[in-house]
Write a structure and sequence with these properties.
Layout (H helix, E strand, L loop, with lengths): L1 H29 L13 H9 L8 E2 L5 E3 L8 H21 L10 H10 L57 E3 L2 E4 L6 E4 L2 E3 L6 E3 L4 E9 L3 E7 L4 E11 L6 E2 L4 E5 L10 E7 L2 E3 L2 H4 L2
Antiparallel strand pairs: 1-2, 1-5, 3-6, 4-5, 6-13, 7-12, 8-9, 8-11, 9-10, 10-12, 10-13, 13-14
Length: 294
């Protein structure tokens, strides 16, 4: 009799344990799970801080209807809204540089204008040969600040030593622009995209120079940009370089205007050798052609 009672006790106890296990299992299915955040999951202010720090979502992409798939400033952003944002930033930069007397007037070439603004305020030891064209009046408060001279070899012959704003081009020879700034169909993914820089058609191994003095903020490698570099300059400006074959600087390095920082290549998401060159101000991309002088 006792053995039958003990058996019934075990049976009831085992059933209770089973119910408890099922209950626990059910609760585990209902428990919220924390997944790794993507860029689009971050709060708006955090995304802006990440962008200002030099991170690139590489790059914003949109579906056939124009809605953002990835890399946009906020969820649901359309390609038209982002295009308008980039256009506003480009016009703001253009207006600021025109007001400061850096961008060209109708009777003077862009590169000569850069030359005049910089050379008029450069220490005498670094004065370049005066321009052949008549000098136009200089602004009372120079737009280009002069940093301490940093020697480097090789250096870009068209970039004045000490220049702190990214005026001019990151390579020599004025190569063909294979993909301009703005909306395009991405050549690899086929998605609509806002291209946040310009692609300069140069062979692998071409010297890449920074057009202004500054501090290297990031040196990294990923599957889209490939080997990349970001340099911080004065006035909230940044320059971005992608698809490099070699990076010749490290994060934290101080670099002089016109100094070589890398070699072009075909790394990352690229269809052929070229340099992706981007310019940003206060964390927002603008058309590099505004400051390249073309």
């Amino acid at each position: 009799m006792r053995s039958v009672g003990f058996f019934l006790f075990l049976l009831m106890f085992g059933s209770a344990l089973a119910d408890t296990d099922v209950s626990r299992a059910g609760k585990s299915f209902l428990t919220a799970t924390s997944f790794p955040q993507t860029f689009n999951d971050l709060p708006f202010t955090t995304r802006n801080a990440v962008l200002a720090a030099g991170y690139e979502p590489w790059e914003s992409e949109f579906d056939a209807s124009g809605r953002c798939i990835s890399g946009c400033a906020y969820q649901g952003m359309t390609i038209e809204e982002e295009s308008a944002m980039l256009a506003r930033k480009t016009e703001q930069v253009r207006a600021d540089l025109q007001a400061a007397g850096v961008l060209p007037s109708q009777n003077i070439q862009f590169r000569d204008k850069i030359h005049q603004v910089v050379s008029s305020n450069m220490p005498s030891a670094y004065q370049p040969t005066p321009p052949t064209q008549p000098a136009s009046p200089q602004p009372s408060q120079p737009a280009v600040q002069i940093a301490s001279h940093v020697s480097c070899y090789p250096s870009h012959p068209a970039i004045p030593a000490g220049q702190t704003l990214p005026l001019g081009e990151p390579v020599t020879g004025h190569p063909r622009i294979s993909s301009p700034f703005g909306s395009r169909i991405h050549p690899v993914t086929g998605n609509r995209q806002n291209h946040s820089g310009v692609d300069l058609s140069v062979p692998s191994g071409t010297n890449v120079f920074t057009p202004a003095s500054g501090t290297v903020s990031r040196v990294w490698t990923d599957s889209t940009c490939g080997r990349g570099i970001v340099v911080n300059h004065s006035g909230g400006y940044q320059t971005v370089y992608c698809h490099l074959s070699q990076q010749l600087v490290s994060a934290g390095d101080n670099v002089g205007a016109g100094c070589r920082i890398g070699l072009s290549g075909n790394t990352g998401r690229s269809t052929g050798p070229h340099l992706h060159y981007g310019t940003k101000r206060d964390g927002v991309a603008f058309d590099p052609m505004t400051v390249m002088g073309r």
